[in-house]
Amino acid sequence: MEAAWPSRRGGVTMDAIGGQMDTITDMSTRLIRKEVDEALWAFVDRQRPGLLAISDELGPMVSALDALLSGGKRLRPAFCYWGWRGAGGPAGAPGIVTAAASLELLQASALIHDDVMDSSDTRRGQPSAHRRFEAMHREQGWPGAAAPFGAGAAILLGDLCLAWSSEMYESAALDAAGLGRGRAVYDLMRTEVMAGQYLDMLEGTRDTGTVETALRVVEYKSAKYTVERPLHLGAALAGGSTEVIESLSAYGRPLGVAFQLRDDVLGVFGDPAETGKPAGDDLREGKRTVLIALTLERADAAAAAAVRRRLGDPALDDAGVAGLRAIIEETGGLAACEAMIDRYAAEAAAALDAAPLTAEAREALGELTIAATARRV
Amino acid sequence: MEAAWPSRRGGVTMDAIGGQMDTITDMSTRLIRKEVDEALWAFVDRQRPGLLAISDELGPMVSALDALLSGGKRLRPAFCYWGWRGAGGPAGAPGIVTAAASLELLQASALIHDDVMDSSDTRRGQPSAHRRFEAMHREQGWPGAAAPFGAGAAILLGDLCLAWSSEMYESAALDAAGLGRGRAVYDLMRTEVMAGQYLDMLEGTRDTGTVETALRVVEYKSAKYTVERPLHLGAALAGGSTEVIESLSAYGRPLGVAFQLRDDVLGVFGDPAETGKPAGDDLREGKRTVLIALTLERADAAAAAAVRRRLGDPALDDAGVAGLRAIIEETGGLAACEAMIDRYAAEAAAALDAAPLTAEAREALGELTIAATARRV
């Protein structure tokens, strides 16, 4: 799962990176959400007529994409943009926002396909794409099975988003040399996230996960993909030096891990209003997260058996979710995961302090660090 | 389904485009298969180490891709190449073969996802990608269900192929202006084929198909995608004039329809050694092809009911397949489909005669016309 972003942040505690307390009053500036949204909708609006000209029966594809793109926190575009700025790229260039926003289409593709693979019902507080198409099939009373139709349509919509992400990237008003440098990062990132998702599936299916193997999945499936590569993409587009690129890795890698671990904790303990998914959904889906691996490492035989029995049970009810939560807390799994988040976030913050970036980018990335990893209570 | 290409062609009758008899002795030259294979394997060989460096557990992804890419007739790259040559592009440019060969990765993605959506067991004479991963899951004795693992892994492999197709295209040693012109065609083609596949699913699920609606699916899902757009891509890369592009449409559109109708006939009546699929597989999958629509148009109530009852029955046995074949022949559906193929192929041949292309390209495309549409008995 991935947490939905609250539309208005009332305050985020800073204790994840050092025990201090502070309040972020205007994260939206750092997330450049308005600019990213404008670029994203401008692209989708340009594609819409072409699709509907093929057939007006493609309307449901467009609606499903609109619904998905209405949510999401635009974290990857923000990291891309601040990678650009950090490497000295100018603030006013419109091309960078287009290139950055294209990452949302890549992410949309990954989410749509992920939800098919996990049979997830919900995404960003709404029905997942395949459930949406499934419901349409039922409402229309078409013959045949609704579920394969829903899955098939969602596979195609995810393919379309993947194709459109590169189309949008290439449409960015940036110089050809920059786009070429960025393309190498984009290519790498796509291969990494797909490889990471395969390893994640392996991890989930084999039931032999350790903290180490779960962390390897986190590295490729989400840490590099969510933070390090978007930063690199921005820096590459701006022609950042090797030193800048390396400093962004030193910051982005641990931050990406901390972000995913926070996401895993939210997936079990988070408020559905924030995560956009029913409470306990990650447990029902049987995700073999680092949090679960830390719990199993600490659990006695009876507790471990209870985790293994309940994890991945699609019929897990509220009491079952509460029972699993209790085990994750009582074994010390949760505390160990929070401690890991703190360590990785602190490592990221230290690397950021030492990074040869522009002052404004360093400040913005400092705020994103907190936003991506802080406890939300 | 899509027919596998015989590794060695013993002779193809020309009667599909005018009743003459002739033999094509060296189709492989026109298909530039050797050159396309070299470019394709060079690209995959460059990607392999990066994937395995992430984890050697990604080996099965690589093997599944290798197996799929070993088959296929490389028809799209051939049309792209001859579109280039037809528009005056030089014979010796290595970049054009790379760009053309990238279409095989796009096609691999489409086939892998199509097989998941159709639950197909076989592709190009081998197990489909999802069945391959499913078998691996079973052989390893992993806990959990094998089928969702197989489908999930295949969805990811298809995504990887789609990402790699654009990566390979962009890697072609061609000038930036040409690649930009070609990219516009590539983008359009991807959107069209995904839209066409969605319309195909709608067609299959609603059971209200007519010849007209089946032909619309053919247009986007396969005619444009297989012939017209690959020709356009090559011509755009070569900087072909509007006149050349339009003449390639006049030739490619009817040829693409004729090609798909031939493929549909082969899907029902073809030799499994040639199609790479068990006899009657298209009938078991319930494909609502033009051939089926032509049959239903001509069938009396009893025959129509028999078609509707048997079509899409996964348990359809040899007798059931033979029964459906008999109805398709006896109603005149097959003859009507053959007549349509002849008409479209003749239209393509006439357009080719009038097209302002180089003589060599016209000759090569003439041979590809026959190869793509001729009866194979």
Automatic annotation (TrEMBL), chains A, B:
<keyword id="KW-0808">Transferase</keyword>
<keyword id="KW-0460">Magnesium</keyword>
<dbReference type="InterPro" id="IPR033749">
    <property type="entry name" value="Polyprenyl_synt_CS"/>
</dbReference>
<protein>
    <submittedName>
        <fullName>Polyprenyl synthetase family protein</fullName>
    </submittedName>
</protein>
<dbReference type="InterPro" id="IPR008949">
    <property type="entry name" value="Isoprenoid_synthase_dom_sf"/>
</dbReference>
<keyword id="KW-0479">Metal-binding</keyword>
<dbReference type="InterPro" id="IPR000092">
    <property type="entry name" value="Polyprenyl_synt"/>
</dbReference>
<comment type="similarity">
    <text>Belongs to the FPP/GGPP synthase family.</text>
</comment>
<dbReference type="Pfam" id="PF00348">
    <property type="entry name" value="polyprenyl_synt"/>
</dbReference>
